[in-house]
UniProtKB/TrEMBL annotation:
PANTHER family: THIOSULFATE SULFURTRANSFERASE. It holds the Pfam family Rhodanese. Gene3D superfamilies: Rhodanese-like domain. The lineage of its organism: Bacteria, Pseudomonadati, Pseudomonadota, Alphaproteobacteria, Rhodobacterales. Residues 36-149, 180-294 form the Rhodanese domain. This is Thiosulfate/3-mercaptopyruvate sulfurtransferase. SUPFAM superfamilies: Rhodanese/Cell cycle control phosphatase.
Amino acid sequence: MKTTLSAIALSLAAWPAFAAIEGPLISAADLQAELSDPELQVLDIRAGDDKGYGGGHIAGAVNAPYGLFRGPEDNPGQMVPADALTETFRSLGLETDRPVVVTYQGANVTDFGAAARVYWTLKSSGFEEIAILNGGINAWTEAGYALSKDAVTPEASDITVRWDDSWTASVEDVQAAISGESDTLLLDARPESFWNGEQAHPAAAQPGTLPQSQYFVHDSWFGNGPTIIDASAAQSLAEENGLTGSENLISFCNTGHWAATNWFALSELAGIENVKLFPESMVGWSNAGYEMANVPGPLRYLWIQIKNVF
């Protein structure tokens, strides 16, 4: 009998402690059911003011504003160095061997890109059990769950970030795709107006897109609100739009925000291998002076600038 009990104990020990947090998405109901577990780490990536974390957050959540995971104003998509991430994650009390849930406002489909970018950063930093609260804080309150105004000050951890570039596209990766050296689909997550050079991000050197690219707008993964579709629907959508035929896929946009949604949907939901995010995207690429496509002529560019002002 002792042998049988030991076998059962070993079996239970091997079973995931957080069955509901299997990722990459978690519902409000499932998160509510897991909140009492002290091992759970909940990050609220909204601003700390009264319109964000300070106005009410999920009990026990630590405030980790999105800016901590982004670059400077003139190049927001720039990656945060591993040593800086290490310092940030230590101050947030994060540990890679504990599950983490990313929460955000859920105001609209663009808002999801922040959660996806943070998820990508955590995964690349060595976290394995990660989930995004699908629909964000808005979904949480709509489900009838309460918010807390008690700020959480975590105990510092001793984490050291060792960046895994498996999901990061470098400039060299993009250049190899453009030259045809690799079988890679360059996928622009921006609306068509950006892809065809009719619009540009304020920090970009000029409008346009990557040569040899096609676009698939980031909001295609959503229904009638900011809740992203499930894995089965994502797989079907990817297949229907020919996004599964290349050996590699690089997702990009203006600053790696919208592109993070495409990366998340393709890599984490649809389960497509070798999907990478190009963090700096068109802002970094255009300011470095690399080759671009769909760049408007001088007169058209002047007209675009006038339209953007007014």
